[in-house]
Amino acid sequence: MKQSDILIRPFVSEKAMNMLNGTQTQDLKDGNKIQFIVHRDADKADIKAAFEDRFNVKVAKVWTRIQKDGKHAIIKLAPGFSAEDIAMRVGVF
Predict the structure, then answer these.
(1) What residues does 74 pair with on adjacent strands?
(2) Where does 3-90 sit in CATH, by number?
């Protein structure tokens, strides 16, 4: 699988938007996270490498879950990098 095939598209929902700026909720209080739909066979290391390579940022942690609409990856960026900037670059705003 090529790195360009791993990240399919950003996932936009109210909860995903709250993850960007760290809106205070119980489980999302630290923010700076962005959510993507990814290839079902991609593991966390593949997702991290593809995201860092494509957007030239550092990733602190990746969480994944499989839902009806595909595999979701929540990507937390390292301090000094902004999830809001990435969201603007991919056209979320």
Answers:
(1) 35, 63
(2) 3.30.70.330
Cα separation, 49 vs 53, in Å, equals: 6
pTM of the model: 0.86
What are the boundaries of each domain within the chain?
A: 3-90
Q: CA 40, CA 48: separation in Å to the nearest integer?
A: 14
How many CB atoms sit inside 10 A of residue 19's CB?
23
The pLDDT tens digits along the chain (93 residues) read: 777 789 999 998 888 888 887 765 545 456 899 999 999 999 999 999 999 999 999 999 999 999 999 999 999 999 999 999 998 998 877
